[in-house]
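ingest -> validate -> predict -> emit
validate: passed (alphabet ok, no gaps, 85 aa)
predict: started
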Amino acid sequence: MRRRYSSVMGDAGSDATLERGTKALAADTDILLAISFGSVPQGRAGFESDIDVGVWLASGQIGPDHRAGLIRTIAAAPGRPVVGG
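emit:
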């Protein structure tokens, strides 16, 4: 049975998470647009919440190495789990 956590991060935590993620992604010149969605930007992130990010690339496609690199970058910046879907 999966445990549920009721604690919620405050807006300051969500803002800091988004700011770190934004700075990390800004270094990738192939990214035209990055959108964070889900619980973190809505200020509803809990202990087990991940960070959801969609990216639009100038190259129009992403190879497996680039994808893996983006996942590592996003995961390292906010210190939250990232699932590459």
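The two ends are 24 Å apart (CA to CA).
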